[in-house]
């Protein structure tokens, strides 16, 4: 019997996969058989290193450098990928940034950069890809949300506004495109050990202690913890699942927590 999770013959495009969660999810999709295209933004060298890393692991991988907030560059990039590699079957909108600044101190340009990258970037990336998917009869879109799609926290208002918006964009994309056999779902990572969280993930840092005590699983997530969910949402196993956000958070959203003396 063929595996419901087999991605052989599919092309998966993962944005912002030069390192961190995107690179780990690309590896997961590659392990399930997908051909990989990853994108980066700031450095050709970083992108080349990530592609080399994937090829060294035996995956068929290519890389493209463009800014997800630049609609013309995205259209060019998607066109190039489709003509040089293959039609895109799976799109993982992973590129994202965070700025930890209290709202009253945040400058408008920083607010806009966070909203543009995390939310508007999904709008600009998805439309050219999905137009082609519709012509071909279907596809999968996975939007990388966050626990901040559900929760507030000091200093991350722009990020939470963007990721909360992305949750609703995911549901609306799912609604508009389900009739075209396109499933759109989100993954909401909890706290993961990546460069984005490196500044707060150090012994003795109060936030590190808070996360370890606040997470029922008692640890930070490893990027590899996202691979199973990414494979599920990219594969035929999820063909009637759309508009859902799967939180991969070690249980944080399931609990109110407990006082430290209990
Ligand atoms: N880390 C966590 O604990 C955590 C938790 C919840 C959600 N998330 C979300 O998961 C995703 C990945 O997080 P991460 O921690 O792996 O981040 P990361 O290590 O900082 O990587 C971010 C990626 O996005 C790319 N990128 C940034 N701005 C871009 C733009 N304008 N256009 C194109 N690419 C751009 C970066 O490319 P360059 O390297 O070329 O700049 C990089 O590849 C993000 O959406 C993040 O919000 C992360």
Automatic annotation (TrEMBL):
EC number of the protein: 1.1.1.69
Record has Oxidoreductase as a keyword: yes
InterPro entries for the chain: NAD(P)-bd_dom_sf, Sc_DH/Rdtase_CS, SDR_fam
PROSITE patterns tied to this protein: ADH_SHORT
Domain of life: Bacteria
Keyword hit for Aminoacyl-tRNA synthetase: no
Protein keywords: Oxidoreductase
A GO term for molecular function: gluconate 5-dehydrogenase activity
Family, per entry: Belongs to the short-chain dehydrogenases/reductases (SDR) family.
Annotated NCBIfam families: PRK07097.1 (NF005488)
Protein name: Gluconate 5-dehydrogenase
Organismal lineage: Bacteria, Pseudomonadati, Pseudomonadota, Gammaproteobacteria, Cellvibrionales
């Amino acid at each position: 019997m063929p595996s419901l999770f087999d991605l052989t013959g599919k092309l998966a495009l993962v944005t912002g996969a030069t390192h961190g969660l995107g690179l780990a999810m690309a590896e997961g999709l590659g392990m399930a058989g997908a051909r990989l295209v990853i994108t980066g933004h700031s450095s050709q060298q970083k992108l080349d290193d990530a592609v080399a890393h994937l090829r060294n692991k035996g995956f068929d991988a290519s890389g493209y450098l463009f800014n997800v907030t630049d609609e013309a560059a995205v259209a060019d990039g998607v066109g190039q990928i489709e003509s040089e590699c293959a039609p895109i079957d799976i799109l993982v909108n992973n590129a994202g940034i965070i700025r930890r600044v209290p709202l009253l101190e945040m400058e408008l340009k920083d607010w806009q950069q966070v909203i543009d990258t995390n939310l508007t970037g999904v709008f600009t990336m998805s439309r050219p890809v999905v137009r082609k998917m519709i012509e071909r009869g279907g596809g999968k879109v996975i939007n990388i949300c966050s626990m901040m799609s559900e929760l507030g926290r000091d200093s991350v208002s722009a990020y939470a506004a963007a990721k909360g918006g992305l949750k609703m964009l995911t549901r609306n994309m799912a609604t508009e495109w389900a009739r075209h056999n396109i499933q759109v779902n989100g993954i909401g990572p909890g706290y993961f050990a990546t460069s984005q969280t490196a500044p707060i993930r150090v012994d003795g840092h109060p936030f590190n202690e808070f996360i370890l005590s606040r997470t029922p699983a008692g640890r930070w997530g490893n990027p590899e913890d996202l691979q199973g969910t990414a494979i599920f949402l990219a594969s035929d196993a999820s063909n009637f699942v759309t508009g859902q956000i799967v939180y991969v958070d070690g249980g944080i959203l399931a609990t109110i927590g407990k006082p430290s003396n209990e």
